[in-house]
Each structure stands twice: as structure tokens, then as C-alpha cells.
Amino acid sequence: MGVAQFDLAVPVTKGTNAVTVLGEENRYMAAQPHCIRCGKCISVCPMHLMPLYLYSAERRGDLETLKRQNVLDCVECGSCAYTCPGCLPLVHSIRTAKQKLRDAAPPKPAPAPAKP
Predict the structure, then answer these.
(1) How far apart are CA 86 and CA 89, in angstroms?
(2) CA of 81: how far to CAs of 86, 105, 108, 114, in Å?
(3) Please, what's the b/e burial string for 33-70 (b: 16 or more CB within 10 A of its CB; e: otherwise)?
(4) CATH class of 28-103
């Protein structure tokens, strides 16, 4: 969900539920993305998260804030990144944050073997 593709060779599979095609005027990618604190990403988030705070917490490596802000609730729809006038890589940053939290979590103990 919410993944930009830059190559037409990527297949459309059974799990694809939508394709958004953007014109040449929308291909702009900022060399250095910059948040202008407009809040558009917050207003479009279907999970009512605050993507700009998740982005900055991930950049700082602040795992406690990421947990407190419920980064794992993000469905990675890409609405925040699509609407961001600063061209921040919000979805990529949120995916990275989720992986950092998973890596930092203590390993779960193996289940006990079933008794015959």
C-alpha cells in the first residue's frame, strides 16, 4: 500500500487494489525534503496519527516517542506522503521506524513443546 513505482515493468497482481498514475508535473522529487509544518499529513491520515512527528522521531532514533505515538498502527497507505508539499519520504521513514522497533524488541520465548 502506498508505494511509489518508477518503472512500468512492475506487475499488477491480484493483491493490487488501486493504481494512481501521476503526470510529469508530479514527478518532482526534492533533493533535500523539508517539513514546512503545514499539517496536511495529519489531516489526511486515516489512522489519526501524526506522520510529521513520527518522521522526526525516526530521524532522531527516539524509539520511546515512536511507541508512544503508535507508529505500529500506521497502515502505510501513503496519503501523508502524497499530500506533503515538502516531499518528505514519510512512508519510508515510518517503515524504517517500525523495523527499528521490531529489532529492539526482546525476542519472544519459543513455545513449549506439546505433550503427547
Answers:
(1) 9
(2) 9, 27, 33, 47
(3) eebeeeebbeebbeeebbbbbbbebbeeebbebbeebe
(4) mainly alpha
Grid cell digits, residue 33: 525534503
Query: Which residues are CB-contacts of 52 (< 8 A; sequence separation ≥ 6)?
Result: 35, 37, 39, 41, 42, 88, 90
C-alpha dihedral (62, 35, 71, 3), degrees to nearest 10:
-130
Q: Over the stretch 1-49, which tens digit does the pLDDT of each residue have?
A: 566 666 778 888 888 888 877 777 666 666 778 899 999 999 999 999 9
Q: Give Dmax over CA atoms of the chain in angstroms.
A: 66
- How many other C-beta atoms can be found within 10 angstroms of the C-beta atom of residue 91? 22
SS3 91: helix
For residue 6, what pLDDT is reported?
66
The grid cell for 24 is 510529469
C-alpha 16 chain-centroid distance: 18
Q: In whole angstroms, give the CA distance from residue 62 to residue 80.
A: 21
